[in-house]
Give the backbone structure.
Amino acid sequence: MAKTRVEIVQDNLHAYLASAPAASAALPPAAPLTAHTALTVRQALELFEDQVASRLLDVAARELRKTNQSFYTISSAGHENNAVLGALLRPDDPCFLHYRSGGLMMARSRLSPDIDPILDGVRSFCASADDPISGGRHKVWGSKPLWVPPQTSTIASHVPKAYGMAYALRRAHRLGLENGLRADSVVLCSFGDASANHATAQAGINSACYAARRGGDVPVIFLCEDNGIGISVETPANWIHDSFSARPHLAYFELSGTLDEIWDGAATAIAHCRHTRKPVFLHLHTIRLWGHAGTDVETSYRSVEEVEAVEARDPLLANARRLVELGAATPAALRALIAGVQARVDAACTEVVRRPKLTSAADIVRPLAPYAEAAIRATAEIQASDEARLEHFGSPLPEKNATPLKRTLCSHLNSALADEMLRFPEISLFGEDVGRKGGVYGVTNGLQKAFGPHRVFDTLLDETTILGLAQGAGTAGLLPIPEIQYLAYIHNALDQLRGEACSLQYFSNGQFANPMVVRLQGLAYQKGFGGHFHNDNSIGALRDIPGLLLGVPARGDDAAMMLRGLVATARACGRVAVFLEPIALYHERDLYAEGDGGWLFEYPTPDRMLLPGEVGVYHEKAKDLLIVTYGNGVRLSLRAVRRLAEQGVKARVLDLRWLNPLPLDAIRRHAGECQRVLVADECRATAGGIADAVIAALAESGYGRPLASVRAVDCYVPLAAAANLVLMSEQQIVDTAARLCR
């Protein structure tokens, strides 16, 4: 039977070591490998051992896949020189790694004697429940003690958060957060040459350069491991060099050649980043052996001659030759080293395949959305002093006016944000126009002046950057409240929530978190303004994200208390939340008639909060009809209820407040007390809002009474008065309710 390419590469190394001259090693362990390097013989041999461990794990993953005992075969073969970075960086230098980081992880694991990287590697690709990072949920590189948060990394989607972590390090250190990081820590982010072209990678690198240009500290090392190919598509020659070597505000270092040359170059790049606190682009030339993954037939797009040419550049073969020729090791010693690593890999495989896998849905989802209500409510005990609040708000405090002061939703949010920032120094607000301007709608007005530009600041115009910064800051121990200016804009960067932020606790088995509360301005009903970007009425993509909390206030006092509840939940449980603020209600004052002030409310005391699942109820004694709604629908429904009463229909209104997860228990309870249910959903009819889910939940629970819904038309929202023709209206609620109650 013909040998596989894996076997051929392995044989090439063994053949060299069997035939190489058997001269004795002449260099002592503490000696430099050459007269021109800082790399010692001992360090070089350790690196080689770590590289061998990475390679043999890759081989084992493919062998076990044949018997369906391994489930991941994207290997690090050919990239093993990244082990140099694992050896040179400190354990308090966070690393955001892509999937070809086996050598780096093997070397980094030497920094913690309690870690067995070979055993952990086998556990990971065998999806073992004993895997110490993901608990069998996915094959990821990660380690809590080594400060390696696990990454999905498939399209360099982790690059923006690496920038965010680097940007947040200085503030986290100043606050004395107990995250194990130091004032001169740096952040490493690795990715491939193909992924460097992805929009998320470009956004992260651009953001770091932008921040450096503005004078900020951004100690991040972008490690591009350039193997010249992305699955089957070749990267043009010199593309990475030409794209990044002359970029302003980005120090460029190129690494190739011998192991000692790579060591010295990498050490220089790390020192530069650590000293200057500015971004570095580290271009490491690698090769890719054996195809993209085990199922990838490399010879379908590379000739045998091309494959052999790549295999001849095997870094393990080159490093073995270097060690032997320089007298750092004998061929026999390296053969013994390889045999010892192979024995460890074999033993790990034998042990792990007998170990349990995840066996229940409950076990799988456990770390996805942690919720500890007692810990959340305990945050109410942390309050800013009256002196601090008086300094900010003046006298009297907003909730202590002798004559009750009723205010708009926008005003309540502004005060609530200030109160939360007074309570928690780790909070920062940022986004487009939130600083000097105070937000497009004035929600953050005056907060930068009050709290300073380090806590309230403007970002560049890129939603991916904003959410990446939030993730990095949250992972560093801060509590970010980023703003996305419009609901329509978050779709530009949705994977930063779906694929990255909300998956971190899940893929790290609860060991890492990136808490945040994303303020998102949206929904429709702005008068005389907008079009579909400023009047977006689709939340389906947000509700689709596992573990995401989604809250939508309808009135000012609720908005203040819901914001506090989300901040408390993020802080206590590490959760990711979106607070969708209805733009059309920011400055609304009236309910039934112009000048009635019916949509103005008093400011709730700072200790009061609303938590997910806590709903709002109007006309609770009414039982003819239950109207289930949220956001703008609450005000429209209350107006409709008044008109329905004239027809003899008594309707109750249930303000859901929370759209992910939906408060299904409350929906069922109130529906059970009423004769009919109408869902007034301001979002689009097809998968745009919550009507489908509410009706399905009631039907599946055996609710046998009449059900109906009112929804917006499946259409982008047009300009001006034409918007009224596609949006849910008060009249539609009245008409549908009247038909339902006949």
